[in-house]
Amino acid sequence: GDSVTQMEGPVTLSEEAFLTINCTYTATGYPSLFWYVQYPGEGLQLLLKATKADDKGSNKGFEATYRKETTSFHLEKGSVQVSDSAVYFCALSDPGSASKIIFGSGTRLSIRP
Amino acid sequence: DTAVSQTPKYLVTQMGNDKSIKCEQNLGHDTMYWYKQDSKKFLKIMFSYNNKELIINETVPNRFSPKSPDKAHLNLHINSLELGDSAVYFCASSQTVNSNQPQHFGDGTRLSIL
């Protein structure tokens, strides 16, 4: 079945550091890929998405590129801020799955001032 | 205005009780979902409704019964609560069932079973 694997956390970085959170997926079809972010005490919010191979999703300085050849969707940001501290979830939705989203296990990110 | 709102935010109750969580979305979306997030933050879908019809029903004990009176509401009733039901339950909605549609989440209901 479909699955998402993302790097385990927690990840701790200093402010202005470069961020990469790795995500790889397994799917039978051609899924849409998402990154969601969860701030403490809140629900998940969509950060960015890509719906086909080679698409790049971007938002708030974060980027991720849909790589079909490596089945990956790594999240990157060039210079993180303290306000980026949150849990990040990689996710996929397969066209044959009636919009069911499969989430990765989440990566907790902490940014030091 | 809150897009997806669920009540209550916190629910503390005894084992064996029956409880309900309510969810409403004002986005005009056709599809709604319930997810369970465990203590390790792992998030798993439980149910999905599209225009009041059940379309996803994962392997969930039949003590859990969703009800959708209209497409803006999806409630979750839980009978005979058990310790393992302690978790955060999230409601979400999306415009359609298309897989490229993002989902909008509520702030969660933290359920604690004593």
Describe the 3D structure.
The complex is a heterodimer of chains A (113) and B (114). By secondary structure, chain A is mainly β. In chain A, 0% of the residues lie in helices and 50% in strands. The radius of gyration of chain A is 14 Å and the shape is globular. Chain A starts with a strand and ends with a strand. The model of chain A has no long low-confidence stretch (mean pLDDT 93). Chain B has 114 residues and is an all-beta fold. Chain B is 0% helix and 55% strand.
Strand content of chain B: over 45%
- Report the portion of residues of chain A in β strands: over 45%
Work out the helix count of chain B: 0
| Major β-sheet annotation of chain A | 6 strands, mixed
Question: Tally of extended strands of chain B?
Answer: 11
- Radius of gyration of chain B equals 13 Å
Q: Roughly how many Å is the radius of gyration of chain A?
A: 14 Å
Task: Summarize the topology.
The complex is a heterodimer of chains A (about 110) and B (about 110).
Chain A: E1 3-6, E2 11-14, E3 19-21, E4 23-26, E5 32-38, E6 44-50, E7 56-59, E8 62-65, E9 75-77, E10 86-93, E11 101-103, E12 107-112
Parallel strand pairs in A: 2-12
Antiparallel strand pairs in A: 1-4, 3-9, 5-6, 5-10, 7-8, 8-9, 10-11, 10-12
Chain B: E1 4-7, E2 10-13, E3 19-25, E4 31-37, E5 43-50, E6 53-57, E7 64-70, E8 73-78, E9 87-94, E10 104-105, E11 109-113
Parallel strand pairs in B: 2-11
Antiparallel strand pairs in B: 1-3, 3-8, 4-5, 4-9, 5-6, 7-8, 9-10, 9-11
Please name the defining characteristics of this protein:
heterodimer, A: 113 residues, mainly beta, 6-stranded mixed beta sheet, 0% helix, 50% strand, B: 114 residues, 7-stranded mixed beta sheet, globular
Write a brief caption for the model.
Chain A is built from no helices and 12 strands. With about 110 residues, chain A is mostly beta strands. In chain A, the strands form 3 sheets. In chain A, strands 2, 5, 6, 10, 11 and 12 form a 6-stranded mixed sheet that branches.
